[in-house]
Amino acid sequence: MSERPAAVEEPADAASRRRPVRSYVLRKGRVTEGQRRALRELWPRYGVEPGDGPLDFGALFGNDRPVIMEIGFGNGAATWRMARDRPDENYLGVEVHRPGVGHLLLKVEEHGLENVRIACEDAVDLLRHRVPDNSLAGVRIYFPDPWHKKRHHKRRLVQPQFVELLARRMSAGAILHIATDWENYADHMLELTDGCRRFRNLAGPGHFSERPAERPETKFERRGRRLGHQVRDLLYRRTVD
Hints:
- 35% of the residues lie in helices and 17% in strands.
- By secondary structure, it is of the alpha/beta class.
- A seven-stranded mixed sheet has the order 3-2-1-4-5-7-6, sandwiched between helices.
- The longest helix has 14 residues, at 98-111.
- The chain is globular, with a radius of gyration of 17 Å.
- It starts with 11 loop residues before the first helix and ends with a strand.
- Mean pLDDT is 88; it is low at 1-19.
């Protein structure tokens, strides 16, 4: 599946000693002519160039509306629909696969969306180094790679350090929304995030949420249902420290 969020954060001392564990596999993929044109012509307007300094969301979007980050947007099918339906919010999509970035750029152009910006890089690096504390009004992680083999579970995106990192970057009252069709990954994320004092489960401790109407259905969700997988949504509110 193409929705491959970024690397699992490690403690700083560990990260300095060894190559970080990645939660995605970077595949080349075929870039169509249309996507290549979008990457060339539209990226300068909607793309977030790599850098070291903190992002100024007001300057990036040209306004002070709330910023929602979507990690691992795949081909952007959910991203552009959410941005279209919520013009009062800004959307920062993060994806490492260039064909998906190109596809979303084309949709942004097609629908005339001005509230979308795109980063083509490791989302954890972006969160760690460029997203200011308490700056995100929401984070969306839809159908991250489940790494279903037990020996690969260390590659899963949602780990204790990652949840703490999200909590630092999200403002009080911000919503964390995760969806997956892998039962044991859902149980893992539920237990882990329930255990973080900075998040409150909107469905109550130990419970999954109903799928909110504002989350667009993706092809991965439809495929999972065809395979008999039950889709589970997790909704959390960032608490006040």
